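User: Let's play a game. I give you a shape written as tokens, and you guess the letters that built it. Ready? Here's round one.
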């Protein structure tokens, strides 16, 4: 992951968006959703949308169970938050996600006007916040959410992913 401070322009007053002191609690909510996703065979990535200190939506990946390539945790959580709040502009919300969002999910955060994206582990292959691309800092985007990396649960996130993929590989080799 490249190290460079973000340059996102905040959409909401910093006092209304989740603070770093809240990151552990909300990242654990996302991590719980990731664990639930693994239970039905999906990659264990989870997300939570937070507004004014409360989780308004949460989701885990559902690509396998729904046979939907767009059923990423972030997109599902964004849709649920918009439905719960009765608006598509989520400018006073934060997106917590266990793994750095891909291009599709980072783009959705921009389009939903998410104020802040917090992720727990980088994705060197497909991460579109800081690793493979830098969509949230792209000057050509019409909105640029602030973002931060929350490294304190990185080991737990990466262990969950590693265990999931090891189980998947073993199941494939046993089937052969």
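Assistant: Ready! My guess for every position:
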């Amino acid at each position: 992951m490249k190290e460079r401070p973000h340059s996102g322009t905040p959409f909401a007053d910093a006092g209304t968006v989740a603070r770093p002191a809240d990151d552990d609690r909300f990242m654990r909510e996302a991590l719980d959703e990731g664990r639930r996703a693994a239970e039905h065979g999906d990659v264990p990535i989870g997300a939570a949308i937070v507004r004014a200190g409360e989780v308004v939506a949460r989701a885990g990946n559902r690509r396998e169970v729904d046979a939907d390539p767009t059923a990423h945790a972030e997109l599902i959580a964004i849709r649920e938050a918009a439905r719960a709040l009765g608006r598509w502009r989520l400018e006073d919300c934060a997106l917590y996600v266990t793994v750095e969002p891909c291009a599709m999910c980072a783009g959705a955060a921009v389009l939903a006007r998410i104020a802040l994206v917090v992720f727990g582990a980088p994705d060197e292959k497909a991460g579109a916040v800081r690793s493979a691309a830098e969509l949230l800092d792209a000057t050509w985007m019409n909105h640029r959410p602030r973002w931060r990396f929350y490294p304190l649960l990185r080991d737990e996130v990466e262990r969950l992913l590693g265990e999931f993929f090891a189980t998947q590989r073993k199941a494939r080799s046993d089937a052969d």
